[in-house]
Predict the 3D structure of the following.
Amino acid sequence: MGKRRNGGKGGNLIVQGGMMAVTALLVNACMVFRQIPLTGVWGDEGNGIFAAAYGVYTAVWLLSAYGLPAAISGLLKSRIKKGDYRSAGTIMQTAFLYACITGIGMGAALFFGSVYVTQRILAEPLAALPLQILSLAVIFSAWNGLLRGYFFGNGAGFPVMISMITEQIVTLVSAFFLVPLGQQRGELVGSLLQNELFSRSFAVMGFTAGILAGTAAAFLFLLPVYLLSHSYYRKKNKKQAGRKKEPILFSVSAFFAALFPLILYGVLEQGYLLIQQICFRLLMRDSLGDSVISAQWGMYSGKYKVFTMIPVLLAVVMGMTLRERVHMLHRRNDHARIRELTQNALKAAMLIVIPLAVMIGTLAVPLLETAFPKQDGDAAALLLTGFVTAVFFSAACLFAEALRGMNKAVTLLACGLAALALHGGALYVMLELLHLDIFGVVYADILYAFCLLALLGAAARKQCGFRYGLLRSMAAPLFAGAVMGGLLFLLAGALTGVMPAWVLLLLLTVAGFLLYAVLLFLLRGVTERELRLTPGGRLLGVIGRAMGRL
């Protein structure tokens, strides 16, 4: 009985989340990994142009579309469950007005204000045209958020999954054709204006056109499905014509009360990158040239952030499942199970996140030479310095999702705002007073991740009472990761140049994984129950049973 209760439903936290969790993992992985071939096309300077345009687009997307699916779905579920279809219709009408006003309004403001934003705030004039293309994608993103919230609220997740996959496929296929065409056009314009950066700017325009095509394709898929299903609820509304419904003001207030915390959470989760970028570009403008600023930020966003985000992807998707299960336990006031589940989920995530993050830092040289051949820069030093942020952000993500599951949105936002304020102060000190250029951003990033983890961890412990044994349980994975990282760093330094980078990377990755697993089981740092929650836990289990440690 105890084993079944503690062990979950027989699979790791990603599998337990079902198809939606797997789809989210695939979509997020696609959004991260697509940056690698693109960087090979347009280099760090192109990354700087793309980061300027996409950063502003992300900020507008957070305001217009990010919170719509979760806010709408929660409000619709509660009303449909009670059979109150008229009030559900009022929620949809409110959401429709919000999506249209914010999507079209902010898209138009972004289109006409793109030159001002890119020249005056970001000092990246070549990002203006890509930003104008992305301003059109804002409209479709807002409508997609509206329709996805509608389907989630009605318990129909399949159209949402198909639309998310369709969006990524169309984006990549369109970019495959449009990026080379844009680059060729840019080379012609650049030769006439004697500025080679135009080839990178036009290549970025090709990719942003692919993003626009992807968001439009997702909308064109969702809209007919919505129209086909909407007639059913229209009939329900007609049958309830004489039934009393919620006051309109109450429905509108409920919508914004559900939406605004989600927007703030999104700003803390993703919007901080734009804050970093603006601070870096403004504070470094006097000491570094615009081209150097663009190249350094492109290296940070297109290489450092891409690779340090890889371990976090697993934690994000595991957190989705954790939030749902914590929410169910919270409704039953089962705080003991919430504590146990969150501790097991954190330990399971760290078993994979720690070695991945360590490998990314210690194998940075062969990793970058494999992904970006013939590209020089300090990206390896950035990864070696800041790989620990992957561990901090992953743990913070799980604590945040546990708090969301316990309906502690105010606590979550307070912790995030406090960490963001400290991050802003650290950025100013690192850049303005210490003049540390892009490494100052990395140091501030480490501080932000650590503060976020410390504050969210303390809040989660206060809510469900973590035991201090949680920290002791992390000793074995941390020790095994440290030993593995030290040996891999020495071997990578000695063997770089002796064999092809991809061969060295493959050999050291396999050797590092085996060494980590052996050390972990020798130290008895994992149980079979924890392995069942861990992505890749079955493979680790095979090694543990072969060693007689399970």
Q: What stands out?
A: The longest helix spans residues 197-239. Confidence is low (pLDDT under 50) at residues 1-10. The chain has 22 helices and no strands. Residues 199 and 318 are 40 Å apart (CA to CA).
